[in-house]
User: Fold DNA alkylation repair protein from Enterococcus columbae DSM 7374 = ATCC 51263.
Amino acid sequence: MDKYRSLRKLFEAHSNPERAIAMSKYMKDQFHFYGIAAADRKNLYKVFLKSEKATKTVDWAFLEQCYGDEHREFQYLAYDYLLAMKKFVHFEHIPQIKLFIMTRSWWDTVDFLSQVVGNIAMMDSRVDELMLTWSLEENIWIKRVAILYQLRFKSKTNPTQLEQIILNCLGTNEFFINKAIGWMLREYSKVHPEWVRQFLADHQEKLAKLSIREASKYL
Assistant:
């Protein structure tokens, strides 16, 4: 039995129908769930990820199977897999990651994948130029990743890059874009509050009220 089918049987054996209904409702009934709590889910495949990490090779065919499954737990598994294998995920793999971003898209998996892209950016400066391009794309989830990929960079955040990306994304009523802008600015305000305060002052008329409200939380 291949790894995907083995994990599917494992998920099925630990499913919780009642919790699955609640989890699906939380996600606007867009996805099916097995109903496995996050901690329990990660524990189920802990040994599997350890064995995969030992191979030092990303199994992209397996990840495609995870994204092809209708149960959301498999997309969460794909993220945890990519995080475990981050040393072996490189710039050349971003086209495949982009496909995952645009597959079964919603904030939960997209925000996970923005961290995967961010991990690559920490090792390869070519990602920065690519994110500028992504910030100009029509797909809101691709734009959201461009905004958020530096979310965990703290003092290593490139403010010039951040400013240009946000400016490329202004002028929309899209909630997930405006929320992401505010979230990113809020996180950066923890290390450079004066920069964020000045950015808000300079672009107040163009920024959505949601973005300003989120960005100003710690100011």
